[in-house]
Amino acid sequence: GELGQKRNLTTTKETYNIRTAGTPISDLPMTIRQAVWVTRRLGRKYIWVDSLCIIQDDTSDWEAEALKMATVYAMAAVTIVAFSA
To answer: Where are the membrane-spanning stretches (predicted)?
Structure first.
């Protein structure tokens, strides 16, 4: 089904410049598109998606971002969890 399409979109060293330049919402998996929709409906400007916001194949980025995770989630206005996609 559509929920399973495009499910492996991540940021890697190779895709970093592409991701930071902007990724069209149509290129995002349905689960993330729905989360973006909810975020906008709540009047929020930002959304954190681990697979896109952390460079997946960069150990130093993972370590640096992992140190921030407690703060990221503690300061979040809302946390959306996809338990099935």
So the answer is: none
Give one DSSP letter per residue of 17-41, joined into a string.
HHHHH---GGGS-HHHHHHHHHHHH
56 forms beta bridges with: none
Q: Give the pLDDT mean for 30-41.
A: 94
Which residue type, as a one-letter code, is found at position 40? R
Q: Which residue has the tokens 């996609």?
A: 85
> Contact 33/6 with Cβ under 8 angstroms?
no
For residue 11, list its beta bridge partners.
55
The Cα 42–Cα 45 span in angstroms is 9
The SS3 of residue 33 is: helix
- Extract the tokens encoding 53: 């916001």
